[in-house]
Amino acid sequence: MIKRRGLAAVAIALTVLSASASKADTLANALSAAYNNSGLLDQNRALLRAADEGVAQSVAATLPVINWSVSANRTWVETPIETATNSALARITGDLVLFDFGVNQLGIDAQKEVVLGTRQALRGVEQDVLLRAVQAYMNLRSAGEFVQLRQNNVRLITQEFRAAQDRFEVGEVTRTDVALAEARLAAARSLLAAAQGDQERSVEEYKVAIGRAPSGPRSVSPAPVSRSLNDAKAFAVRNHPAVLEAQHSVTAAEINIMRAEAATRPSVSLNGFVSTDKDSNNSAQIGVNVGGPIYRGGLILSQFRQVQANRDAARSALHLTSLGIEQQVGNAFASLQVARASRQASDQQISAARTAFEGVREEATLGSRTTLDVLNAEQELLDAQANRIAAQADEVIASYTLLSAMGLLTADHLNLPVQQYDPSAYYNLVKDAPSIVSEQGAALDRVLQAIGKE
After folding, report:
1. Which of 279, 270, 284, 271 is nearest to 91 (CA)?
2. Residue 153, exposed/middle/buried by CB under 10 A (0-12, 13-18, 19+)?
3. What's the CA gap between 355 and 348, in Å, rounded?
4. Quick one: which H or E segment has residue 88?
5. Tens of pLDDT, residues 307-348
6. Digit-coded pLDDT (tens) for 48-78
7. What is the pLDDT of residue 4?
8. In 31, 178, 293, 419, which residue has its Cα 20 to 30 A from 214's Cα atom?
9. Which of 355, 343, 409 has the alpha carbon at shortest distance from 130?
């Protein structure tokens, strides 16, 4: 009867475990949810669209500018006889820059570099979102395992406590042994409560990082990272979004220097107007203007020095960013090696601690070991198991942190099953500064309406 009940219990446990596993989240599903639900990504996509509009505005500076105006006036003249006259005038004016030594075109080129840099900043935010999701996923899994470990510990010490009471009643142990077991049981219950609190906090972090409630994370293997440290650093310096963003900032700063130089030269523009008054007197004019700065109180030279200083600052930022990325790769690589070694050592420690615990408990039943010896052996096994749980989580997090440091923690590289955001789609709609009546402008309106409904 006991064996049949035991088999039935095992069958029920396996059924529950398999059912929960079927509902459990995979890391890929969690990362996909984080990608789709991230408000931070939405915010930075909007910032990228704002940067795209900078290109459209720079292009607009090269196109004709047409304005209209209507004025109406009443004039009183006081002479020996007071008279009053009315006038009305409607006018359309136009202006077009014909030649400016490349000032406007350089402005477009600089804004394009800003857009490319902002795209890299968006990639960096994507990496941050996915790395936070990995950490939330693994921390929740570790928290759940710690709770199970603490629950098992409470059950085991409860058994030891009851056994100590039984042995005390028959005179095999003293009241001290019972008190020791009771104290360990109270401590185990306290640690269980702490583990349950950590689990609740991990659930809240999971909701924020992933964008929905958890359904039980599965076990995860570390991300494949086969590069050596030097290769990883070299790859990161060439491909990390922070480095690429800094490179585009340097390029934009250098273009702004050329633009400042060109701004000191004359420009040629075409302008004209068409007007009519209340008496239907029509007039029109067209002309060409050529002009340039002579003296502006030192403003031009100050602006030139300013863009040079910005260029120097951007170069220094690029150097510091490259050094920082190399350090991040080195730190992540070291953390991964430490986590691997710790996990391997924990496996060996668990095997030895379990053998020791089983031996000490058997010896205690024969009277050659005290209750304290059993509790100490059980605590060493518990510590070893806790170390392995932490090491497993640390190894996974360190592997994905290394991917992030290398610039590879993206939905594209991870091949996540998501509809990836195309940063060029909106840019292609606005880069030519379309008018509201154009076909491209109508398509842009539909895109903005769709974004507003999300």
Report:
1. 284
2. buried
3. 11
4. strand 83-99
5. 999 999 999 999 999 999 999 999 999 999 999 898 888 888
6. 999 999 999 999 999 999 999 999 998 888 7
7. 35
8. 419
9. 409
For strands 83-99 and 267-277, give the pairing. antiparallel
Contact 450, 435 (CB under 8 A): no
Neighbour count for residue 221 (Cβ, 10 Å)? 10
133 close to 31: Cβ distance less than 8 angstroms: yes
Q: Are 56 and 430 in contact (CB under 8 A)?
A: yes
Q: What is the dihedral of CA 211, 31, 333, 386, to 10 degrees?
A: 70
Sign of CA pseudo-dihedral 48, 53, 58, 63: positive
* pLDDT, mean of residues 204-217: 90
CA torsion through residues 336, 338, 339, 344, sign: positive
Render 344-404 in DSSP notation, one character per residue.
HHHHHHHHHHHHHHHHHHHHHHTTSS-HHHHHHHHHHHHHHHHHHHHHHHHHHHHHHHHHH
- What one-character DSSP code corresponds to residue 226? -
Q: Among residues 381, 377, 393, which one has the least CA distance to residue 343?
A: 393
Lookup: tokens for 344: 């391997």
Could you report the per-residue pLDDT of 258-292, keeping only the tens digit for each?
999 998 999 999 999 999 988 888 999 999 999 99
130 three-state secondary structure: helix
pLDDT at 22 over 90: no
pLDDT of residue 308: 94
- Phi–psi pair at 172, nearest 5 degrees: -80, -30
Both structure tokens of 379: 């605590």
Q: How far apart are CA 135 and CA 76, in angstroms?
A: 79
Return d(Cα 426, Cα 392) in angstroms, integer.
42
Taking only Cα atoms into account, the Rg of the chain, rounded to an integer number of angstroms, comes to 36
| Among candidate residues 247, 405, 241, 224, the one with its CA nearest the CA of residue 326 | 405
Instruction: Name beta bridge partners: 84.
Output: 76
| Burial (Cβ within 10 Å: 0-12, 13-18, ≥19) of residue 390 | middle
Predicted local distance difference test score (pLDDT) of residue 443? 67
Helix, strand, coil percentages for the chain (3-state, nearest 5) = 70, 10, 20
Residue 444 banded pLDDT, cuts 50, 70, 90: low
Structural contact between residues 122 and 244, judged by C-beta atoms closer than 8 angstroms? no
Contact status, residue 147 vs residue 62, Cβ threshold 8 Å: no
DSSP string, 41-82: HHHHHHHHHHHHHHHHHHHHTTS-EEEEEEEEEEEEE-SSS-
Distance, CA of 27 to CA of 38 (rounded, Å): 16
